[in-house]
Structure formats: C-alpha cells, structure tokens
Specification:
The protein is mainly α. About 75% of the residues lie in helices and about 0% in strands.
C-alpha cells in the first residue's frame, strides 16, 4: 500500500521537473538568462513552492539543462562511433549535435555563454572532446577526410554555425545547413562530386538584414 501511494507522487515530481525545465528553455530563449525561478514556475504553470522543492535556485535549473545537453550530445557521438562508416558517422553527429545545440535557443545560450563559468566549459571538454577526437581519428584512419583535420576544427565550425543560425533565424532558419554542407565538402577526400546544398544562398539584402539585425539606427 505504501509503494502504491508513493508512485503517483514520484510521477508528479518528475512531471513538474520536466515542466520547469521546458519552461526555463522557453524563457531563456526569449528573454535570456536573467529570468527568475519565480518566472519559470509561473510559465510552467506550477506553484512557486513546487519549483523550489524541485530546484533550490535558477543555477540548479541551468546545471540540469547543461547536463541534459551534454548527455544528449555524448549519446549522439557514441551512436556515431558505432556506425562502421566513419564518414556517415561524422556527418550524422554534426547534424544531430547542431540541431540539438542550436535548434534550442535556450540550450544554445547555456552551452555557449562564456559568462556561465569555467566548470561547465571544463566538463564539456572532458566529456565531449574525447568522443569528437575518436570520430575525427576514425575518419582519418578510413581515409575519408583530409589528414590534417583536427577535433578543434569541428568545435570552431559549430561555433561559427551557431552565429550563422542566430543571425539568420528570421530570414532562413535552415541557412546554417548550407554552410555545414560547404564545410563537409571541404574536409572530405572524395571530391568527384559535391554534397547538395540544403538551402539557397541569401540575397544581398537578406545578408545585410542578418548582419545588422542587432544594431540600432546610427550604429
């Protein structure tokens, strides 16, 4: 009887936790990280007391979202390493990790905001970098990428694609995939054909809008 009474409470607690995390992602995406735990609770439709039972403060929510992001990216990398085709594995990992990191603006901010502390950066480095290193070395071992490719190239390319996504979101949300395809063609050794570009290039006017969208008049 005791176990039967406790199970609904555990399910409710888990559901409230997921509601709070989902609400935090949405608020972080639209308003940045300055929102309060009270804001998150109201957006999630749960009581403030419930929020504080699940998380002591906003930092714990950020930590939970960061941990979820690292876990999902690591899972994508491990699945890519299981693919016997090193090129297909590398491409799949980049596509999935970019979608996860940059398709969720709140998570993107958490994963890439330098102001959030060295501990999180170090954690990401320790857990994700070795997996990316394995993906790159395996691809080089199979001779499917240029021999001077380094794991850091993938990291910096993802940072660059993050900036492209953020600046072009209102014009063409999938524009970053075009530049991912260009990057992939630049590192592959089989150049008898080219990967099809997933979307068109922006016009000159659209490019100007994307590059100046955050500037105030006169800047």
């Amino acid at each position: 009887m005791t176990e039967a009474k406790e199970r609904p409470l555990r399910r409710d607690a888990a559901l409230n936790r997921e509601r709070l995390l989902a609400a935090a992602r949405e608020l972080f995406a639209s308003r940045g990280l300055d929102v309060t735990l009270n804001d998150i609770a109201h957006h999630a439709g749960v009581g403030v007391g419930t929020a504080y039972r699940r998380f002591a403060n906003k930092e714990e929510i950020i930590d939970a979202l960061f941990e979820d992001g690292l876990r999902d990216i690591a899972e994508a990398a491990n699945e890519a390493l299981e693919n016997p085709d090193a090129w297909a594995g590398l491409v799949t990992f980049l596509e999935r990790s970019l979608h996860m990191q940059f398709g969720d603006r709140g998570l993107n901010q958490i994963m890439n905001d330098a102001a959030l502390g060295l501990d999180r950066v170090s954690d990401a480095r320790d857990r994700i970098a070795p997996l990316i290193h394995q993906l790159v070395e395996r691809a080089k071992g199979q001779g499917v990428v240029r021999p001077d490719l380094d794991q850091s190239d993938l990291i910096f390319v993802q940072l660059g694609l993050s900036a492209i996504m953020e600046s072009s979101r209102g014009i063409e949300p999938e524009l970053y995939t075009r530049y991912l395809a260009l990057f992939l063609d630049g590192i592959r050794t089989d150049r008898s054909s080219f990967l099809p570009l997933p979307t068109r290039a922006p016009t000159a006017d659209e490019t100007h809008m994307a590059m100046t969208r955050k500037r105030r008049p006169g800047q």
